[in-house]
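<context>
A single protein, sequence plus fold
<entry> Chain with its tokenised backbone below
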Amino acid sequence: MEFHCARAVGHAHSNSIHSPVGACEMKDEELAPRDVVKLAFQYQETKHVPYCFAVSQEQANALTQYYGDASWQDGVVAYIGNLAGVDNFLSKAGLVEQPDGSQQDCLGCVWEMGSTHHLVGWPLHEPVLGNYRLPDLEPYFEQHLFPQWPRDIAATGTQFRVIDHSFGLFERAWSLRGFENFLVDLVENDAFAGELLDHVTEWFLQSVDLMATAPVDAIFLTDDHAAQRGLLMGSDRWRRFFKPRWKRIFDRIHHYGLYTIMHMCGDTSEVVPDLIEVGLDCMESCQPECMDIYRLKRLYGRDIRFWGGLGAQNILPFGAPGEVRKETARLKQEMGRGGGYILAGAKGLGAEVPVENIAAYLEECRSPRLS
């Protein structure tokens, strides 16, 4: 059993969505979770800040033991719900085990599987695209995702619904070429790097067209193109190679009236204005260990939404419960001011987070921001 956070969206881009009928006069308790999230996305404050709370079965058992019974589950609101999307490996198409125990996906990438996954082989050994083509996604959706969606829709009910496509432009490109190789390509083989990214972009556009047939509110993308000290390829190359291609993808998503959400680890603060310019509606993760998220809120909080922000490298695993409560309360007050915020851990609630800290986070999530 896993208790998921709420993720959901409405069929209209942020600048054209109207508030839920009578929402401003209604209490949070009278609104569907989806409507509370939509209000946040429309930069409206609500009594309760929408939050994400997802725990494993082991963590759920630990919470039941901590509280003495399962009553802690009462009042946990699942604001955001997920429909089955495209994962890193297109794993529903199957993985082929190699003689050394590694696994090859249908894209030709070879992975060492474990608690984390490491790329150990890739299809493009030279900086030449040649005849290589990413697989047509329509059969994948028809065989593996479309049949799953009715169950997901029923399970997510009145939640704000999102659908994911993991591994963004940078991540998909380096998985096809090798991480170090692709970073070199961005410098020394720029024509090839552009050709490869164009091919990946077209593949993403097909994915958007297929995902947008689902009754969701947002498309959730991922692209970890930064480390804790800044962009891995530098801001100039990011603007040259990635910014215009992400604009094409975001424009396509907005064409369907959906929000754009993107997970980005690391310090991406340098290009937040660029992300706003090309149409990113919400940035997720917001690691406080490498960015001043409160400053970002002050600077850009009327132009982009934030999701995350509770430190997964310090506060959650190593802080005292009182520190978790204090920082969660601050996030609600400061990041939640004026709406535009989803409360969550920057990296979720990992196995290393003590049960006392999970409980402190949950209790603070459930308390109102506004009295």
